[in-house]
Every structure is written in structure tokens, then in C-alpha cells.
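Hmm, how's this folded?
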Amino acid sequence: MFSHKSPFTQNARELDLCYTYRVNNDQQIWQVWHETLQQWRLDDLTALILDALGPLNLLGAQVVYFSQPFLGKVLPEGHWDALANVLENPAQTKAFSTFLRQTDQSI
């Protein structure tokens, strides 16, 4: 009997690692955003706007994707992608909004 590793299993593991890295990286970026928004006292307003805009956040994500080549150096590396991800994915939007509110209450 021979052992055969499926390429699908290997690819799934690589995707899990990429996803885990992205989630951890996004959480670090979210923390930076929260600190900045809190300094400007915009954390609650940002959470409110994200919740209120709902489906319009998808348009915001498209604007972010479109403007990345022009505004790429305004934010540190990875921040534009994280912002587009938050706006594009309703689950991420809700998670970030909740993150803003929970962190605000714990401080």
C-alpha cells in the first residue's frame, strides 16, 4: 500500500494558514484604527455609520479598491486591503463595528 497525499488537502492547509494570518493581521490593524478613532472621539460614530450604511458599504469597498493606486502610501501597507475587506464583507463590517463598541466599553 502506498500513501498518496491529496493536493487538495495541502492547498486547504495553506489556505487555512493564509486565512489565519489575515485574521490576525486585520485584528492588529483594527486595533490601530480603534486607537486613532478613539483619539479623535470618532469610534462610536464610525460604528454607527458602518451599521447604518449596510449595503452601501459595498460601494465604499469599490471606491477603496479603485483609489488604492492613487492613495496607496497614505495608509501603511495592508490597511487599504483591510478597509476594503471590512466594507465588502457584511460579517466583517459587523465584527469591526462590534469590536469598536466592545473595546470602547472595556476601556
Helices lie at 7-39, 43-53, 56-71, 79-88, 90-106. DSSP finds five helices and no strands in the chain.
